[in-house]
Amino acid sequence: MATLDDVVAWLRDLAGTMKEHAAELTELDSAIGDADHGTNMARGTAAVAALLDESYDDAAALLKKAGMTLVSTVGGASGPLYGTFFLRMAGPLAGKEQIEAADLGAALRAGVEGIQQRGKAEAGDKTMYDAWAPALEAYDEAVSGGQDVGGSLRAAAEAAAEGRDGTEPLVARKGRASYLGDRSAGHLDPGAASTTLLLESAARTLG
Ligand code: ADP
Ligand code: MG
Ligand code: MG
Known about the structure:
GO molecular function, one term: kinase activity
Bound molecules: adenosine-5'-diphosphate, magnesium ion
Structural class: mainly alpha
Protein name: Dihydroxyacetone kinase subunit DhaL
Organism: Luteipulveratus flavus
Distance between the termini: 5 Å
CATH class: Mainly Alpha
Domain DhaL: 5-204
Largest sheet: none
Number of strands: 0
Radius of gyration: 16 Å
InterPro entries: DhaK_L_YcgS (IPR012737), DhaL_dom (IPR004007), DhaL_dom_sf (IPR036117), Dihydroxyacetone_Kinase (IPR050861)
CATH superfamily: DhaL domain
């Protein structure tokens, strides 16, 4: 079970995590993109962290505000995608004071559906979706096996890391990296790396 306070802790941890890993994410983006993914994510999540001193009716209200803030501060491809993720996550959590593992699963699924609708990526396109898709599957499987929020998120984060590693040999079919064609192969996708960090942060702080 997770509460609004846990979501606050998550978003605070996320800002610290993105700051800590900004250089690494930007390094990945310099190989197959425009070398800004780390600074984009650090800037956006710092703006989200600045929202955390206000009070919110529930986690859904905070996540909605976080999503709008990411859209307006990050820009590029990842701003609208992560922004949509948080905005859509809010839907299934509306009015819930206690977030059970299945509730969070529904929220994660809604968020990832938003990413897909917006970015139109499919599995194997070498995007953040290649981390999200196995993460959702692992999360649901863990919940079915009786795991709580924390255990299910740990399973999701591990699956995301495998998905991230699996992007290395792929040729990008979406986003800037796709402009490189075959030369995009041999590098990890930066968005799949930030998605893994986001889920690792959630596993540390929620549940
Ligand atoms: P930009 O490419 O505009 O500079 P970022 O560098 O912040 O934006 O983010 C790049 C990441 O966004 C990529 O590594 C990839 O994971 C993700 N991405 C790009 N386009 C798409 C898309 N259409 N669907 C899903 N993810 C995408
Ligand atoms: Mg970039
Ligand atoms: Mg850019």
